[in-house]
Amino acid sequence: MAPTPPKTPKKASTAAKRVVSASPSSPATPGPRVRKSQRNAPALGNEMTTVIVGRGREKFLMHKSLVMSVSGFFALGLASSFKEAERGVFEMEEETPAAFSVFVHWIYTNRLFIKKTASPGSPAAEDDDEEWEYLLRLYTLGERLDS
């Protein structure tokens, strides 16, 4: 019988290339990081707008161009002859600062960060009702802001 020639190694698949080997001194990363080009980032500009929220009048300072790009409500209010456009200040007493804070984090990070208010281990903390109620509040806020 004739000897068989040695097999040439196959190229590693793209999935295999993404695997990061862990060294004892550094933990393995959970997967490839998502990187985006700076050219695709929205232009923030240097103009700011202030939104005063709730009965406690909590202030949120945001980039005008960013908030106008994600909200029809703010785009209309800031590009018109309303007093909000002149002053650059919106007052929203009917909103809760907690929900509006989630909105602000969402427009800057494109992620929803929600905190449960119940203490850990309590029956309410185990239940998802509180989170669903909070998401409903966020949805109605998004509808109101045309986001």
TrEMBL record:
Residues 1-45 are annotated as: Disordered. InterPro entries: BTB/POZ_dom (IPR000210), SKP1/BTB/POZ_sf (IPR011333). Residues 47-116 form the BTB domain. Residues 11-32 have a biased composition (Low complexity). PANTHER family: BTB DOMAIN-CONTAINING PROTEIN, BTB DOMAIN-CONTAINING PROTEIN-RELATED. This is BTB domain-containing protein.
